[in-house]
Write a structure and sequence with these properties.
By secondary structure, this protein is mainly alpha-helical. The chain is about 65% helix and about 0% strand.
Length: about 180
């Protein structure tokens, strides 16, 4: 199954992204306001470039993640810098792999949102929009995994995996850049 293969073949990259992501400081309630703003900016840079690449192959795709991040950044009166990104997807199958990464992140985002309530430094940033307990993101993930199962025979599995891996690698690259001002 493509979902099993995606999970197995991206496991190491997924773990590397989680290890480099400042969100762990939300989970252990030690994040500062400055670190949180940097986390938002890093996520904005990563999600906006990946979602823009998906849109080139999927006209019906709704780039909700970077819009939610933009809303959080504006609420925090943060400077929003556009980073030039050379991230590209070559075809529709790769864009489906990228969507696996984007849509799958909602599951972790829901858990992180609950932890934000116990972070004293984050009170001024609530309500948060990107890290959210909104159930629509989970429904979107479930709908996406159904799509993968229903269209499994029509998908080029290798290309889907390439799209997911490239997306995780892009996130990793952005999360390892020194602090974004």
């Amino acid at each position: 199954m493509i979902t099993t293969r995606l999970k197995e073949e991206t496991k190491e990259l997924h773990q590397a992204v989680e290890n480099e992501n400042l969100a762990y400081k939300i989970i252990n309630h030690t994040i500062s306001a400055k670190e949180y703003l940097n986390l938002l900016k890093q996520n904005y840079a990563a999600y906006s470039s990946v979602e823009k690449a998906i849109l080139k192959h999927e006209e019906k795709y709704k780039p909700i993640k970077f819009e939610l991040l933009l809303k959080d950044l504006k609420q925090a009166n943060a400077n929003i810098e556009t980073l030039n990104s050379s991230f590209n997807l070559k075809n529709k199958d790769q864009s489906i792999g990228a969507q696996y990464v984007i849509k799958g992140s909602s599951l972790g985002g829901s858990f992180i949102a609950k932890q934000m309530l116990d972070c004293p430094e984050l009170k001024p940033f609530l309500p948060a929009y990107f890290f959210s307990t909104d159930k629509s993101a989970i429904k979107d993930w479930n709908k996406f995994t159904r799509f993968l199962k229903e269209n499994e025979a029509a998908l080029n599995h290798d290309e889907v995996i390439v799209g997911a891996k490239n997306s995780f690698e892009h996130f990793l690259k952005i999360f390892t850049i020194p602090q974004i001002n």
